[in-house]
Each structure stands twice: as structure tokens, then as C-alpha cells.
Amino acid sequence: MKNIPNKITFLRILLIPVLMYLLLSGANLSALALFLFSSLTDFFDGFLARRIDQISPFGKFADPIADKILISTVFITFIQLGDLSAITVVIVVAREFLVTGLRLIGIAKDIVISASWLGKIKTISQMVLIVAILVCKEWYWPTLTGFLPMLEYVVIATTLVSGGDYLRRNSDLISGAI
Domain range spanning residue 21? Predict the structure, then answer.
């Protein structure tokens, strides 16, 4: 049998350009539905891989990359649409490059750098911000709209804290590579 979790991850990657098209064309409700679906596949592919014992090197590599491409694509598109600060997006994308770089150094030394609970909180905060922005674009919701700047600050904070945590936990790996 083929690796089903890897197929789900690959599907998520294939859906990213569709999501970007929907965002740019103003189809916010469809974009919201596709983003939520993609986010659920992120949870489901990992759960399924563990459940049916189909954890693979491809999955370990592709799943976090798919997540980073998904979030980065939406955030960058939000800059173009005027919905998000470029500073926030640069912080998010820089942190993702940093963590991916650490993981690549780890792979070269046969060290697996797994996701941390702070990284998971960061991802959840980013997903909440994306959903909130899309909800506000589709329906006028003054209370939620007022919270968007605060949600953006939460994303910045969780991104910086989780990035700092990866640096701290892998300082030996970094010092050995420099």
C-alpha cells in the first residue's frame, strides 16, 4: 500500500496555489474553507502516519515544509492585500528559515530536531490570525476586527519566543556548525 499520509501532505502542497488564487480574487469564504481544510489535513496526516505506522523520511521533511509554505503564502498574500504588516511576515518567514536551517544542520549530523510545544502554539496563533482576517474580510464583525492588531502581536511574540527556544535548545549544534 502506498503511503497515505504522504499523499495527504502532497495534496496540501498542491492546494496552496489554489488558496492563493482564491485570496487574490476576493473569494474569502472559499479561501477560508480551503485554509481550514488544509489545516485539518496537517493534523490528520501526522495522526494517521503514527496510527497506521507510516512515518517516513519524506513525511518528516515534507509535512513541516508544507506547513511553512502554506502559512507563508497566506501571510505574503495578506501583505499584497493590505491585511497584514510586512514586519510581521518578515519575522514569521525569517523564523521559519532559521528553524529549517537548524533542522538541515541536524540532519547532516544525524540529529532530529522535532517540533516543540512552543512551535505548535506559534502555528496555532498564526492559524487563528489567518482565520480571523478571513472572517473579518467576509463579514463585518467590529469586535473581532478590533482584536486583529492584538492577534498580530500574539503571532509576533509566539514566533520570536519559539524561534528563541529553538536557538537555545540547539545552541551546541549551532556552535559546532560555526
Answer: 4-177
